[in-house]
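Technical note accompanying the year-one report. For the benefit of new consortium partners, we illustrate the data format agreed upon in the data management plan: each record pairs a sequence with a structure-token string. No post-processing was applied to the example shown here.
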Amino acid sequence: QVQLVESGGGLVQPGGSLRLSCAASGPSLEYYVIGWYRQAPGKEREGISCIGSGAGTTYYADSMKGRFTISRDAKNTVLLQMNSLKPEDTAVYYCAAHFGQRMGCPPNNDYWGQGTQVTVSS
């Protein structure tokens, strides 16, 4: 029932910025934690930043703190502003939605986006 449409990935130089957008549609979105995950070649998928619909429900992985900012608007579009990008940030980034409140980024989600490639290279 929930659809997630991603945009914003691309190629950026080290130190640069990108903004990823996840447009969510469907019923009862206020009950979903929505966030961003990434998977680099040869590595496990990791939750990087997730946000609930209520106050004080944001989560950032330690390596992203101070560089990434997640936000969620009234239409449940979830943005991830990524600054000071590093080559190790290169990965496929996925938007995902999980029904119900969770701490951090849920490892399993009810819905996933298509994935968008972020490449940080000079």
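Partners are asked to follow this layout when depositing records. The chain has a mean pLDDT of 94.
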